[in-house]
Amino acid sequence: MTIKKDYDLTKLNTFGISARAKFFAEITNEADLGELFDSKEFKNNKKLFLGGGSNILLLGDFPGIVIVNRLKEITVLDEDEESMQIRAMSGEVWHDLVNFAVERSLWGIENLSFIPGTVGAAPMQNIGAYGAELKNVLESVETIEVKSGHLRTFSMAECQLGYRDSIFKQELKDKYFILAITLRLSKLERKNLSYKVLREYFEKNKLEPKAAKDISEAVTSIRKSKLPDPTIIGNAGSFFKNVFVEEKKLGEFLTLYPDMPYFREGGVHKIPAAWLIEQCGPENGTSWKGYRVGNTGVHKRQALVLVNYGGASGQAVKELAEEIIDSVFKKFGLKLTPEVNLI
Ligand code: EPU
């Protein structure tokens, strides 16, 4: 492993923001990890571990060491008649793990198909889509404490997974490097068609999903139709989190906005941030959806996604995000928070 200096990060973040790292290293095996932890560049600098770079917005050059994780391996640890326990190294591409599962007719992560990024990022924000969450199948997370280099395994409960959230984004932020995750997937059918858009897809195409692979293909197709391909237009998926409100507040909103969509989730109501953004705009009577300013803007098919048309700076994207937050707050009194990590 060599540690490089003044490294261009443009291709390493799906937003396609041009920025540089003071130091850069790529780790492909556990020996690299040991070498990295012993290096002075690692010990004396701020650290940024990157997987697919699909959930970050770089606001400028990174004044420390950027480490790209390419630790790969998927192994079956255990199995019984009903389930299989699988361990995946953190540098695996998430969708490769989904393919590994659906090829073996295992249920549990097919609804999470085609989510960009790596396995290591999955527990960070408890990835979720189409009615499923990592939380439902995760057993444990193996980590290395950055300060000491010691191994520590977190049980699923210890990870404190919430909506796009975990202990690794909160009090243990930047303190642990995720090495591997262990999942338990089901051999028995666990079809999850709770998400309306997914049910409608099968109805519309007159298909009857039988295998996990059928659902994986449907989710992939829906995502491709709604979300911009980062290799063509820079983006990091949903820029903001959805918003949760209590029953009383929802009632008040529905009186004012009878068309407001909402979903019941865990005793509270989720209001799609995309809808809130679509109802607001840079000026009265306009909508953010499809809006463009300079080289940044709001995607025309999903208002939750901010895009870089090429050459936008992280600061410009941030400024647009702030304007959106202000306008939604003025109109609805709800404060949007970014899902993407600003760095
Ligand atoms: N909607 C609008 N305008 C839009 C898009 C959506 O009003 O431009 C409304 C519609 O009412 C729609 C509802 O929002 O029914 C929900 O939209 P969608 O199904 O596209 O999902 P979302 O809530 O906007 C979340 C995740 C996505 C995930 C989808 C599908 C968050 C922050 N985002 O988006 O995750 O793919 O559900 O399950 O929870 C990501 O994290 O990067 C990501 C793309």
Automatic annotation (TrEMBL):
SUPFAM superfamilies documented for this protein: FAD-binding/transporter-associated domain-like (SSF56176), Uridine diphospho-N-Acetylenolpyruvylglucosamine reductase, MurB, C-terminal domain (SSF56194)
One Gene Ontology cellular component annotation held by this UniProt entry: cytosol
Keywords associated with the record: Cell cycle, Cell division, Cell shape, Cell wall biogenesis/degradation, Cytoplasm, FAD, Flavoprotein, NADP, Oxidoreductase, Peptidoglycan synthesis
UniProt cofactor(s): FAD
Family matches, as Gene3D superfamilies: 3.30.465.10, UDP-N-acetylenolpyruvoylglucosamine reductase, C-terminal domain, Uridine Diphospho-n-acetylenolpyruvylglucosamine Reductase, domain 2
Pathway: Cell wall biogenesis; peptidoglycan biosynthesis
EC class (word): oxidoreductase
Function text: Cell wall formation.
PANTHER family documented for this protein: UDP-N-ACETYLENOLPYRUVOYLGLUCOSAMINE REDUCTASE (PTHR21071:SF4)
Name recorded for this polypeptide: UDP-N-acetylenolpyruvoylglucosamine reductase
Species per Swiss-Prot/TrEMBL record: Candidatus Nomurabacteria bacterium RIFCSPLOWO2_12_FULL_44_11
